[in-house]
Amino acid sequence: GGFIKKTLYQAIMVGTISIFLTFGFKIHISHIVAKETLALFFTAIDIFSLVLLILIGFRSSMVVAYSKTKDDAKILNIFRIILIAMVLLAWAFVLPYLKHEMGVTIHYWYLVAMIIAMGLFAYLSNQLAMYHHYALINKTTYIEPILTIAWFMIAFYIAQVPPLQALFISTTMASLGVSSFIIIQKRKLSHEPAFKKVQLSDEMKLFLKNSFVSTLEFGSGIVMMYLAVIFIVRYFSIDDLGDFQVVVKPVLMAMIALFIFPIFRFILPELSKLVAQKNYKEIFLIKRWIYTFSFIVSSLFLAIMILFGQKLTLLLFPDLYANAYFILTHLAFFFVFIMLNAYQLSFIKASGAFMSALLIRLSGIAIFILSFYAIYTFYSTNIISVIFALMLGYVGMFILSLFVERKLLKEALPSSI
């Protein structure tokens, strides 16, 4: 218990440093790079990230499969084949789209280097999660933004490379730099299995199925956020959209990066190990601590929003974003459910119930959509209707996940305690 608490607290501290570095860099480049150039670059990054989304989905299933089987050679060889296929598909279809449809005016090989570098980094970061190399995961969190900033400075200020090329160079070289660091450090901790053909046993077929389901589940979590944007675009003003995109969404994403991602990154691997060992007493201790921690974090977030939200919004953003604090304060009331839901889904996936986790996510989306239309039609045409509906989606997922958790514990406890 003490080790995982320390690891999570370190992850939050490191995540805070990383967010400050990333935001600082974005503010700096927004002053020196044309808005259109930045829009193209960040859209290209988003498209690459969505293509590599399947690899993030693999992380949970790799962690659970390794805890159960310890067969890292088979797991990694299956993952390598999927990774190579994804990179080749991106090379064949995404790169031409970026070049010819979106008009990213950059040499073809910059894009090739970038997709290979991002693919390698995704492969190695999934490995770190699978082997429970927590200290290395924390180091990569702040090394990546430092390398991105350093390479941009070298390319733009010293080599005098045009802004778009400098941005692509900095992102590619940062991914390669972090990957090199992981490879060197990992040698002391775990070996790299030989590349060979895999005979698909029942366990490996289950791993592949769980990977696919986990990818859909991870993707559906992102869909909720994009649905909120779609509702605002369709039913509310451009002013409301600006408040959400410029202030609310970045603050929410920062809170998710600090407090939600570490739960999936560190607590899920630990839970999968404890489930494999049938150590449910330790699981109960972790759950109690996560619940306490979630209430403390959410209460602080809410207190800051109520007491200083308006002042902070006006201090950091122009006056025309003044109303955004009102949306954020409503969001802060429900943030605890986002945190608790992350723990519940981690336990469900650690128990191998990947399909249940996906169905809970899909139910959350359905509740969000139905709630929005109900509130918008019968109660309020204010933008707060989107936030209330979004939070009802998370509350619904939390209630459903409690039922699934209870069912899994009932099945497991008679034979384990």
What's the helix-strand series?
Answer: HHHHHHHHHHHHHH
Fraction of residues in helices? over 70%
Strand content: under 5%
The major pleated sheet works out as: none
Q: What is the radius of gyration?
A: 22 Å
Structural class: mainly alpha
What's this, in brief?
The chain has 417 residues and is mostly helical. The protein is built from 14 helices and no strands.
Layout of helices and strands:
Elements: H1 2-32, H2 35-51, H3 53-69, H4 72-101, H5 108-130, H6 134-158, H7 163-186, H8 202-235, H9 238-259, H10 261-277, H11 280-316, H12 324-350, H13 354-378, H14 384-416
Characterization of this structure:
This protein is an all-alpha fold and 417 residues long. The chain has 14 helices and no strands. Helix 1 runs antiparallel to helix 9, helix 10 packs parallel to helix 12 and helix 12 packs parallel to helix 14. The longest helix is centred in the last third of the chain and has 37 residues. The protein is globular and about 60 Å long. It starts with a helix and ends with a helix. The model has no long low-confidence stretch (mean pLDDT 85).
